[in-house]
Amino acid sequence: MSKPQCWQEVPLATVAFGASALKVQTGLWRSSRPVIDTEKCISCYKCWLQCPDDSIATDDEGKVAGINLFFCKGCGICAKVCPADAIAIYPESEFSEEDREGGKTGADPGEVGAHVG
Amino acid sequence: MSDKKKIMTSGNLAFAEAMRQIDPDVVAAYPITPSTEIPMKFAEFAANGKVTSEYIAVESEHSAISACVGASVAGARVMTASSANGVALMHEIFPIAASFRAPIVFGLVNRSLGAPVNIHCDHSDSMPERDSGWIQIYCEDAQEVYDTVLLSVRLAEDSRVLTPVFVCQDGFITSHCYEPLELLSDETVKKFVGERKALYPLLDTDNPVSYGSFTMSEYYFEIKRSQMEGMNNVLPVYAELAAELEKETGRYYPPIESYRADDADYIILIMSSASGVVKDVVDELREDGIKAGALRVRFFRPFPRKELAALAKGKRGAAVLDRSASIGGTSPLAAEVRSALYSLEEHVPVQEYIFGLGGRDFYAEDAHSVFDDLIKGRYTETPRFIGLLEKDDKNERA
After folding, report:
1. Mean pLDDT score of chain B
2. What is the crossing angle of helices B186-193 and B11-22, to 10°?
3. Phi, psi at B170, each rounded to 5°
4. What is the pLDDT along chain A (117 residues), one digit of tens a residue?
5. d(Cα B59, Cα B37) in Å, to the nearest integer?
6. CA separation for the pair B283, B203 (Å, rounded)
7. Which of B16, B6, B255, B38 has the alpha carbon at shortest distance from B139?
């Protein structure tokens, strides 16, 4: 469903249709960034379990592979719960301009207000 | 016609009887005077198996209306009732219900807001809710309450409207006084109201939706504008429904009732139960050759401004009698009337009166006195008070 362009196109009754949160780039809110040291990581999934935003990426073998910066808003819970001390938090300003704009997901800016459409 | 029944009943019991016939899916209520009898009687119906409804006894009015909203967006047909401070406690949830387009039908039995604590009638409880996005209909008598409940179910649930409705009646005066009332048969009512067809029921798990998600400046404005369209459709949809019910009842209620106002020079605008006295006085003045008339405003939201401008056009004077005050501003009905008449090329002078606060009685002599003011051209910038004890006067009515 495309984004509404006028008031006649917004869904009735404030409803948001299913699974629309997947289109919202909460990563735009981030001011600090977790970085996973995959050498230290034991793939215990504690960070995966506690992450409020579906930001812990896993690979085909089920191992923790990194952070999905499209969703990660930098809350830091993952670093707090990590028993292997494998996650460190850095200020966004330490990353290059290009890297900051879209994180690792780069090209896809997400949809502002995606849940409305 | 033979399936109709005449009974003696009150405004509250007429509302409850309509609820029994409608048999809504869910009723959540927290009783408060003077609307207590509505949930009381309905709880009895539920306990005795006269309805199939889920009756939810809750711990406050805030919970009552919250449960109603949840049930309504789940897809249920929902009704409730309250008054005065109970209505005020519900305030937070009213705009949410309206935005969710939850077609709740609400028996609002008008009672003054405290303090001081007072259980009698004025409109200070419903008027603060006029901007909450609900339809407001004010009834003159028990028969009108009964008929309006039936109409309101259809009106609220109509896909062009999808807006909750307050069915207002005057506390004690209408809610507790017994009068003859004609009931339709259960079958006729069930056929008229039909089944609710919810657009996005929460219980439809194959098509999941969320209601009221976080929406910042990018779309909030558009969503509010979309909501307004439902209210814009109310009067045309109501006209269809009222004509349909008239075929069953023989009774038709326009958004504004015009009583001998067509050729009148002087008119009183008033709402709810006090209209009867004004109509009597209109009849008396007509016998004396004075062209008096009355306009009883039934719909306050949406306010029928075009209808009012047409009805009030060319009058030599209009008195607006408000049963609530907007302290520091213009009383609610007077403000609407002045605004609606502003567009008329020929100015109609409007005088604001405040009457009946906290159940202060309103007499025929009061209506006579108001018409006398209009005839003699006595207008003041500030509102006049009817029946108020003033220093050094001989009013002994308190």
Report:
1. 96
2. 70
3. -75, 125
4. 578 899 999 999 999 888 777 888 889 889 999 999 999 999 999 999 999 988 999 999 999 999 999 999 999 999 999 999 999 999 999 987 766 654 444 445 455 556 665
5. 17
6. 55
7. B255
Q: Cα distance from A42 to chain B (closest Cα, Å)?
A: 36
* Interface touch A4/B208, C-beta < 8 Å: no
High-pLDDT (> 90) share of chain B, %: 95
Sorted by where each starts, the structural domains of chain A and their CATH numbers stand as: 26-106 (3.30.70.20)
Disruptive mutation site among A2, A6, A12 for chain B (greatest number of B CBs within 10 Å):
A12
- Which residue do the tokens 């670093």 mark? A79
**CB-nearest partner of A14 from B99, B207, B216:** B99
Interface contact A14, partner B, CB < 8 A = yes
Of the candidates A9, A15, A112, the beta carbon closest to that of B218 is on A112
Query: Domains in chain B, start-ordered, CATH in brackets?
Result: 5-249 (3.40.50.970), 257-386 (3.40.50.920)
One DSSP character per residue, A29-96 reads: G-SEEEEE-TTT-----HHHHH-TTS-EEE-TTS-EEEE-TTT-----HHHHH-TT--EEEEEGGGS-
Q: If you search the block for the tokens 């949406």, which residue do you land on?
A: B302
Residue of B nearest to A17 (CA): B209
Q: How far is A3 from chain B (nearest CA, A)?
A: 10
The pair of structure tokens assigned to B146 is 């009964």
ipTM for the complex shown: 0.87
SS3 content of chain B, % helix, strand, coil (to 5): 40, 20, 40
Task: Give the chain B residue nearest A3 (alpha carbons).
Answer: B219
Locate B366 and state its tokens.
């009061």
